[in-house]
Amino acid sequence: TWKWVVGPMFLYLCERLVRFWRSQQKVVITKVVIHPFKTIELQMMKKGFKMEVGQYVFVKCPAVSKLEWHPFTLTSAPEEDYFSIHVRIVGDWTEGLFNACGCDKQEFQEAWKLPKIAVDGPFGTASEDVFSYETVMLVGAGIGVTPFASVLKSVWYKYCHDATNLKLKKIYFYWLCRDTHAFEWFADLLQSLEAQMQERNNAEFLSYNIYLTGWDESQATHFVVHHEEEKDVITGLKQKTLYGRPNWENEFKTIAGQHPGSRIGVFLCGPEGLADTLNKQSISNSEADPRGVHFIFNKENF
């Protein structure tokens, strides 16, 4: 038995030593942004830190807990001179981080008062392959939308600086959530991208659909009254919010018809049930002919 135990234990100890070494590297919090509905954005810098789109890191705050590490998706783009995470305050550890950063105080906080942060990573995910396709479908459910903040920011930077060498030509983005207010920071990002794409006369580059899966009767009445307004009453975007869940079979067939003979990347960050549905649709809507349309499914679950 010991022969089978020693190998894994040695690898585990090596991993713990590497994490301890990384935790001693200096991380500087350059900015703390408070978003609505108790969501904070930490912008940080670390010497030698290199990331790709959609990756994640483990974060430890000794002022809150000396042992706990928590995973967070990076919401910044590789082209930016910092890396960032968005933290929604939903438990004891996140509440402690919120208070340690001085977000519970009204006055301006000096940088030297911010807590020490340890960062381990970044670690790769399936979203890194998004630039390998000409056409992609990005599907985020709830908090699963965070990897696509990094993707969409990076796409915009690449598009602005060297659009001719950008292989990616079309993005279909789907966001399924019970309450968009919890992620208003992401709606702000979409508003910015929407405005910038219209300025460059390429609004068709990004096609997005937001599906609200939970609402009550009073909200439904409010939506109906303001449906004719130019911008959506929930997100402030020109694209109106849809209610319920998407008909995935129709969505796949429509996209397949618009891009015949293409390899289309399907990227999901969401629950396992949705992953099964998208995987089945990717298989059933791919043609047997190698020259036909093919959907390549990539996922990360939470």
Automatic annotation (TrEMBL):
Keywords: Cell membrane, Electron transport, FAD, Flavoprotein, Glycoprotein, Heme, Ion channel, Ion transport, Iron, Isopeptide bond, Membrane, Metal-binding, NADP, Oxidoreductase, Phosphoprotein, Transmembrane, Transmembrane helix, Transport, Ubl conjugation, Voltage-gated channel. GO terms for biological process: defense response; monoatomic ion transmembrane transport; superoxide anion generation. It is found in: Cell membrane. GO terms for cellular component: monoatomic ion channel complex; NADPH oxidase complex. Its cofactor is FAD. Residues 19-129 form the FAD-binding FR-type domain. It is a multi-pass membrane protein. It comes from the Eukaryota. Catalytic subunit of the phagocyte NADPH oxidase complex that mediates the transfer of electrons from cytosolic NADPH to O2 to produce the superoxide anion (O2(-)). In the activated complex, electrons are first transferred from NADPH to flavin adenine dinucleotide (FAD) and subsequently transferred via two heme molecules to molecular oxygen, producing superoxide through an outer-sphere reaction. This is NADPH oxidase 2. It comes from Oceanodroma tethys.
